[in-house]
């Protein structure tokens, strides 16, 4: 085999690998590409590359969500609900709305621990699911005369 064909063969193999990755990304919304990417993310320089690509794509699609994610990443992981609430309070209204929509879409919305937390979540979501008219309080009932 002539030596000048070696770069051509290498380019064809790289093109084939790239084509397979694009096909897997398009086929069934990337269901079969995700395990490959998570395995590749164990390599440090590939992890940084994937994060940069993901951030750039997010900034093009939803700049408010990208800004919210940057702010929340700076604060670090929040396990405590009060710290998570404090972190969310530092976001602007548009950032908070974009973040809550993304969390709802992912299905990662944690279930509130008590009534106060549920009400705060409903307020942050814009009252969706809260219903229309406010419920009457217990004092507004008519009393029977005896």
Give a quick precis of the structure.
The protein has seven helices and no strands. By secondary structure, it is an all-alpha fold.
Would you give an account of this structure?
- The protein is an all-alpha fold and 146 residues long.
- It has a domain at 63-126.
- The chain has helices spanning 6-26, 34-40, 44-61, 63-75, 81-89, 93-106, 115-124.
- Helix 4 (63-75) packs across helix 6.
- The chain is elongated, with a radius of gyration of 25 Å.
- The termini are far apart.
Search tags:
mainly alpha; 7 helices; elongated; 146 residues; 63% helix; 0% strand
Topology:
Blueprint: H1 6-26, H2 34-40, H3 44-61, H4 63-75, H5 81-89, H6 93-106, H7 115-124
Helix pairs in contact: 3-4, 4-6
Shape: elongated
Helix percentage range: 55-70%
What is the number of helical segments per DSSP (H or I, 4+ residues)?
7
Terminal CA distance reads 109 Å
**Per DSSP, what share of the residues sits in E-state strands of 2 or more residues?**
under 5%
**Protein structure class:** mainly alpha
Largest β-sheet summary: none
What is the average per-residue confidence, as pLDDT, rounded to a whole number? 80
The succession of helices and strands, N to C, reads HHHHHHH
**What is the CA-based Rg, rounded?**
25 Å
Number of beta strands: 0
């Amino acid at each position: 085999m002539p030596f000048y064909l070696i770069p051509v063969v290498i380019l064809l193999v790289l093109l084939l690998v790239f084509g397979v990755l694009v096909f897997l990304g398009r086929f069934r919304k990337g269901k079969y590409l995700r395990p490959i990417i998570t395995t590749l993310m164990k390599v440090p320089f590939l992890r940084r590359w994937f994060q940069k690509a993901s951030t750039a794509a997010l900034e093009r699609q939803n700049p408010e969500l990208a800004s919210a994610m940057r702010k929340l990443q700076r604060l670090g992981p929040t396990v405590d609900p009060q710290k998570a609430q404090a972190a969310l309070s530092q976001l602007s209204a548009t950032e908070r709305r974009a973040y809550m929509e993304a969390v709802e879409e992912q299905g990662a919305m944690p279930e509130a621990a008590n009534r106060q937390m549920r009400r705060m979540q409903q307020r942050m979501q814009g009252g969706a699911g809260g219903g229309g008219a406010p419920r009457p309080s217990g004092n507004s009932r008519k009393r029977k005369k005896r």
